[in-house]
Amino acid sequence: MLSKVGSYNYHIESYACDFTGKATIPVIVNCIFQAATAHANERGFGYDDIRKDNVAWVVSRLSIEMSEYPEHDENITVETWIEGVDRFFTQRCIRFIHKDNRVIGYARTIWAAIDIVTRRPVDILAWRPDLADYVVPDQECPLEKLAKIPPVNGVEPSMGYTVRYSDIDINQHTNSIKYIEHTLNIFDLKMFKEKFIRKYEIVYLIEGIFGDKLKLYTQAASENEYLIDTKKGEESICRSRILFHPVIAGLTRNPMSAVE
After folding, report:
1. Rounded CA separation 247/135 (Å)
2. What value, to the nearest 5°, has the Cα angle with vertex 16 and ends 14 and 17?
3. Is 105 helix (H, G, I), strand (E, B) or coil?
4. What are the helix (H) ranges across 78-207?
5. Which neighbouring-strand residues pair with 228?
6. How many domains does the chain have?
7. Position 181 in a domain
8. Mean pLDDT of the chain
9. How many CB atoms lie within 10 A of CB 130?
10. Which residues pair with 147 in a beta bridge?
11. pTM score, two decimals?
12. Quick one: which of 112, 120, 92, 114 has its CA closest to 33?
């Protein structure tokens, strides 16, 4: 049997960076999804394997905390493992390692298996009991368990958009990363010049499909913490929590991060 922990290397290209020359949160999340996909494919429960059962993996919740971000032309290593499996969800952890072997971040993700015909959750323990063989319960992931993100009410929308072709993924719903990109577009460049995202959390509640008209509602929970509720009408599609941290000496690094 393959190692329970997968390790994958990624090179940060210039097109993956923002105006600061560093990788963005959507790029880091893309690395998470690529590593999770490779890990699952190598072990027999990836897209092609489970498609035969009319099943697809969908991310339900995600939390990521970075002490710093890789720069253009740097390499990072992404390690991933399954922390737990229960009836309707699997818990997957991720660790980001800089080229000099420093740990610069962690992430936690929760995945559900859905029937692609009925769009209903699949009982994972009954469908694929072998997934339990890959659980690594004692691997360190110091990131806190994902907390509830409250709704945002009583404010005017910060922005809106209509789901179009470029938003739709292989499962025919809105790509998970697109929601993240739209939440970041709420803030102006001044915010990202002065601060960087220390922690980003998102919970996906219902599917967004082509043609949906969505609005984003924002609430400042504190000076550096923002809640964003993406809604279709009165119904929440997803909710995000963003925790910013001031840029120190021109570097997107947080010397007090919990991930160090």
Report:
1. 37
2. 70
3. strand
4. 124-127, 176-184, 189-194
5. 218, 240
6. 1
7. yes
8. 92
9. 11
10. none
11. 0.92
12. 92
